[in-house]
Design a protein that fits this description.
9 strands, 29% helix
């Protein structure tokens, strides 16, 4: 049963692959990768001048169960500074870290609660979700991995001295979730100047959700997930510091159009693209001038783009 608070590099070398929807599978960390301590570089709004920032999608989710503390630790053991997650709200108001709006793909909810179809996150209490196994479907070594609360997740990221790209998932399903998230961030010390200025970005597909975040905390860095038309970019620049599009249709002209605009903090907009898992794709989007690459295989991307 998985019971450790971190994942060693040796364990990663034997990790079972996690196949995410629309993403390539991986069975082990990139052969050229070596264990490194948590990196110390990269600001909240983008990568260095030399290479894009590498952001571990749902943690190092090619090597450990996605959006779990194990995936946070896996990214840390690979020396990855930034992790991305997805936050939703339970029936009784707890914030949990899980990607899908249902629990069936990533947990054993259908076995534990067979009569509760369609198993939506918002229909379960925090105590019920805490009973679910979020790891054993990937193999016996992950048995016992749980869906973490946001508080637990923040603790793991803090322990590893990492940084967080936090996605508000399906905000239309959870009215007022922005205030709930900000409250937990505040309680856990994530809204002090050090975190706000260099260790936290809040993103969403929901423009209204990002506007709500800015109304309550205008100092936060925010990112819009999607690819707005170039003509519409100035409207997004009013509330988003980043435009974060899927990589498949990304062009250099689009990246340049984003970079020409300044966001609400008076700085040029940045671009972090998702979800890039192959070295060739990483090299291509880096050549387009993106500031960040969101990936399930952060070691592969890091080694490809330097």
């Amino acid at each position: 049963m998985y019971a450790r608070t971190s994942v060693t590099t040796a364990a990663l070398l034997g990790a079972t692959a996690l196949l995410l929807p629309g993403c390539a599978a991986a069975t082990t960390p990139h052969a050229g990768a070596t264990a490194r301590p948590a990196a110390r570089s990269g600001g909240a709004a983008g990568g260095s001048a030399d290479a894009p920032l590498v952001i571990a999608h749902r943690g190092a989710s090619a090597y450990a169960p996605e959006n779990t503390l194990a995936a946070v630790d896996a990214a840390g053991d690979l020396g990855i500074d930034w992790v991305e997650n997805d936050v939703q709200r339970t029936k009784d108001g707890e914030l949990v870290v899980v990607h899908d709006t249902t629990l069936s793909r990533t947990t054993d909810v259908e076995r534990v609660f067979p009569g509760r179809s369609p198993w939506k996150v918002k229909d379960f209490t925090a105590a019920e979700i805490a009973r679910l196994d979020a790891g054993s479907r990937l193999g016996a070594r992950w048995e016992g991995v749980r869906v973490p609360t946001l508080k637990e997740y923040l603790g793991a990221v803090e322990k590893n001295r990492q940084k967080l790209l936090l996605e508000i998932k399906g905000p239309e399903l959870y009215p007022g979730i922005e205030g709930d998230i900000l409250r937990v961030l505040r309680q856990e010390g994530w809204l002090d100047s050090a975190h706000v200025e260099g260790r936290l970005v809040v993103q969403s597909f929901g423009a209204a959700s990002l506007r709500a975040v800015r109304e309550q905390r205008p100092d936060l860095t925010t990112g819009f997930l999607g690819t707005p038309a170039v003509a519409d970019l100035p409207a997004y620049a009013a509330f988003a510091d980043q435009i974060n599009p899927v990589y498949t249709a990304l062009t250099g002209d689009y990246v340049a159009a984003v970079h020409r605009l300044k966001g609400p903090h008076g700085k040029p907009l940045r671009v972090s693209t998702w979800t890039v898992d192959e070295a060739a794709d990483a090299v291509r989007v880096a050549g387009l001038g993106v500031d960040g690459i969101i990936t399930n295989r952060p070691d592969v991307v890091r080694d490809a783009v330097g």
